[in-house]
Amino acid sequence: MNWTTFEKLLKPVNEYSTAFGRIWLSLVFIFRLLVYLVAAERVWSDDHKDFDCNTRQPGCTNVCFDHFFPVSHIRLWALQLILVTCPSLLVIMHVAYRKAKEERLREIKGDNYRPIYPYPGKKRGGLWWTYLFSLIFKASVDVIFLYIFFRFYTSYTLPRVVKCELPPCPNVVDCFISRPTEKNIFTLFMVVTTCVCVVLNIIEATYLIGKR
């Protein structure tokens, strides 16, 4: 998908978004999605290959890696980004439905046609609820994933050395994580941008409810 098609797809969302929604959209697609695609994937591409333990016991390194990395950061971020952007597609579909409905009535009634939605660009009726639901859903997804990351990776950080004593390891072995500092920086960046997105969603939802 080229950028022109992408821009056309997001046009309905921008049209009906508030200023907070436009900031959120820019933050997600510039600072989260692009950083994920351009940089983060490369940083974590060697996480298993360069996870080194000071033992030659077959299976020990794989077991220890699975214990300390139950789910990859990259896969969790990919799932998070998919779930966070899905509500925007729901808004796009609702806007498309409204436009198709207007077109059908225009063809049927001809000169006697009166628009059902006289204020294009305004969130009225079902679209208001769809938009509000999308904000609550996006904020909930981000909060849930922040919690998941915190449980899997305490304080969102990776240590330089981890000690593993799971079978089939013969004793307590030291395992070394590849580029932990760089990974911690990217993790912190993604966590901070996620928190900012949650705050923007809450502010926008409060604004919508207060304005209504």
UniProtKB/TrEMBL annotation:
A connexon is composed of a hexamer of connexins. GO terms for molecular function: gap junction channel activity. It comes from Leptocoma aspasia. It is a multi-pass membrane protein. GO terms for cellular component: connexin complex. Keywords: Cell junction, Cell membrane, Gap junction, Membrane, Transmembrane, Transmembrane helix. The keyword Transcription does not apply. Its main location: other. PANTHER family: CONNEXIN, GAP JUNCTION BETA-5 PROTEIN. Residues 42-75 form the Connexin N-terminal domain. The keyword Membrane applies. One gap junction consists of a cluster of closely packed pairs of transmembrane channels, the connexons, through which materials of low MW diffuse from one cell to a neighboring cell. Residues 141-208 form the Connexin cysteine-rich domain. The gene is Gjb5. This is Gap junction protein. The chain crosses the membrane at residues 20-39, 77-97, 128-150, 185-209. GO terms for biological process: cell-cell signaling. It is found in: Cell junction, Gap junction; Cell membrane. Belongs to the connexin family.
